[in-house]
């Protein structure tokens, strides 16, 4: 039982309360007096009859204004609040005594180590966290707060190591232990991303109504928090560059520059100059320091250009042409391609070492024909943007126009949609856009996959189409059962076809 007693500041009032407890032969477990002067008592539960007499007696003491039960003593409440706070923290936290032994851990520690709390308590922190001698730090004259890089479960973490001190009677402090808080690189990346994030959503420019595109944006948002190289796959016109810029703007590098290297437009003699610079002009790597280098059409990079890039990536730095000094590379590299880069590696057209360095993380942007629910919102947004440029009100889309846009296969994807709408809007005189205003190549021509003069048998062409279809669907249905259900075939049939065409998680990037 715990009592909270509100009273005046009178000498001897606490002793008067204790005398009553002695009279009732109550074993006092604890007594606390808070800053406001309230007295808190902790004693075993007593019989109701005794309790009925005890409360009025305490209230009759001179200077006491109120007596009531309370669920917690102040120290108990504080301890419970601190424990609850500790347990809800997502990062591993250790509380240590003055010898570096574990007194308390949170759930993030037990989950990471897959060990119960009882097994951890009393162990030396050095058994679990390496890279900083906590015991030596505790033994120093006046331990100061430290931030150190350490190893925890064989991974790099940033540790905040804080001394825990309590005041003594003379007003100085006594070391009571330490608090160790760990943060992983991923968690730090998340926090830095939020800190540097623009007030508007960095991915607002990437329209995603369809389930396929929403999945891409979710993955892109997580990958933007990391600093590894990122490869974006997708057909021409799907918006790979737009997604790359959104990843940059959502990253901790958002304050740095977003620099584009267009591989298809650079002959070999100019590639190294563009990348590393000249005596008169800084290269793209120098311009992108602290930011992002976006390498577009990376599959078009020549063998010589690949060798130059590989040298930079392997050395982790580059030599400035202007000064001749070697600079560490502080650039995130994001690449885009419409080609199957893995296939090009197998064909010897792209260096394997460069491929694996650039393909640490990857995203696959689906074609517009696979994200039907994005077509009309994209069209409406495009019309609004172009109408502002042309100084007119955005027209409405007629039903015939919507049906036509939804049925068209869009081989040129979002770029083709934007260009078609811009042309139609430029010539439009009314306030409604209908099917007749949209000029596009016929759908039959657009979806033709076989040239008139192709060589080979029907079986060869069917297999080629089948392989291409399976490779396109596999990233979205990586389970053979899912893919079989999608195509209306048996699990065994799909498994055999994937094996025949060498389509798996190693050859097709998910």
UniProtKB/TrEMBL annotation:
InterPro entries: AAA+_ATPase (IPR003593), AAA_lid_NorR (IPR058031), ACT-like_dom_sf (IPR045865), ACT_dom (IPR002912), Homeodomain-like_sf (IPR009057), HTH_TyrR (IPR030828), P-loop_NTPase (IPR027417), PAS (IPR000014). It holds the Pfam family HTH_50. NCBIfam families: HTH_TypR, PRK10820.1. This is HTH-type transcriptional regulatory protein TyrR. SUPFAM superfamilies: ACT-like, Homeodomain-like, P-loop containing nucleoside triphosphate hydrolases, PYP-like sensor domain (PAS domain). PANTHER family: HTH-TYPE TRANSCRIPTIONAL REGULATORY PROTEIN TYRR, TRANSCRIPTIONAL REGULATORY PROTEIN. It is found in: Cytoplasm. Residues 206-426 form the Sigma-54 factor interaction domain. Residues 78-129 form the PAS domain. It comes from Fluctibacter halophilus. Keywords: Activator, Aromatic hydrocarbons catabolism, ATP-binding, Cytoplasm, DNA-binding, Nucleotide-binding, Repressor, Transcription, Transcription regulation. It comes from the Bacteria. Residues 2-72 form the ACT domain. Coiled coil: none annotated. The gene is tyrR.
């Amino acid at each position: 039982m715990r009592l909270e007693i509100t009273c005046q500041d009178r000498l001897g009032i606490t002793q008067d309360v204790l005398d009553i407890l002695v009279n009732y032969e109550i074993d006092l477990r604890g007594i606390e007096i808070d800053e406001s002067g309230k007295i808190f008592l902790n004693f075993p539960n007593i019989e109701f009859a005794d309790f009925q007499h005890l409360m009025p007696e305490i209230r009759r003491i001179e200077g006491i204004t109120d007596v009531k039960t309370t669920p917690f003593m102040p120290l108990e409440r504080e301890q419970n609040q601190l424990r609850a706070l500790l347990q809800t923290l997502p990062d591993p936290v250790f509380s240590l005594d003055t010898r570096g032994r574990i007194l308390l851990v949170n759930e993030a520690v037990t989950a990471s180590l897959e060990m119960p709390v009882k097994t951890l308590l009393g162990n030396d922190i050095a058994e679990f966290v390496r890279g900083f001698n906590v015991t030596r730090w505790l033994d120093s004259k006046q331990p100061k707060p430290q931030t150190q890089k350490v190893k925890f479960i064989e991974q790099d973490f940033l540790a905040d190591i804080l001394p825990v001190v309590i005041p003594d009677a003379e007003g100085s402090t006594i070391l009571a232990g330490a608090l160790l808080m760990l943060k992983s690189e991923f968690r730090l990346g998340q926090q830095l991303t939020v800190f540097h994030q623009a007030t508007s959503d960095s991915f607002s420019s990437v329209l995603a109504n369809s389930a396929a595109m929403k999945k891409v944006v979710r993955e892109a948002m997580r990958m933007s928090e990391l600093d590894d190289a990122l490869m974006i796959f997708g057909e021409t016109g799907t918006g790979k560059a737009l997604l790359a810029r959104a990843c940059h703007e959502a990253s901790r590098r958002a304050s740095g520059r977003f620099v584009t290297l267009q591989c298809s437009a650079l002959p070999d003699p100019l590639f190294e100059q563009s990348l590393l610079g000249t005596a008169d002009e800084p290269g793209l790597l120098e311009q992108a320091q602290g930011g992002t280098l976006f390498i577009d059409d990376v599959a078009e990079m020549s063998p010589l250009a690949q060798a130059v890039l590989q040298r930079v990536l392997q050395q982790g730095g580059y030599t400035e042409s202007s000064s001749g000094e070697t600079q560490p590379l502080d650039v995130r590299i994001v690449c885009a391609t419409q080609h199957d880069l893995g296939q090009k590696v197998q064909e010897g057209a792209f260096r394997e070492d460069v491929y694996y360095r650039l393909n640490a993380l990857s995203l696959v942007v689906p074609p517009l024909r696979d994200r039907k629910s994005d077509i009309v919102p994209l069209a409406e947004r495009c019309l609004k943007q172009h109408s502002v440029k042309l100084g007119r009100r955005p027209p409405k889309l007629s039903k015939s126009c919507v049906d036509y846009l939804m049925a068209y296969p869009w081989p040129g994807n979002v770029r083709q949609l934007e260009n078609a709408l811009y042309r139609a809007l430029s010539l439009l005189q009314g306030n409604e856009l209908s099917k007749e205003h949209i000029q596009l190549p016929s759908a039959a021509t657009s979806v033709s996959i076989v040239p008139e003069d192709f060589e080979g048998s029907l079986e060869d062409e069917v297999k080629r189409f089948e392989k291409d279809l399976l490779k396109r669907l596999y990233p979205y249905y990586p389970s053979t059962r899912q893919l079989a259900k999608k195509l209306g075939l048996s699990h065994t049939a799909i498994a055999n076809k994937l094996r025949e065409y060498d389509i798996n998680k190693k050859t097709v990037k998910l």
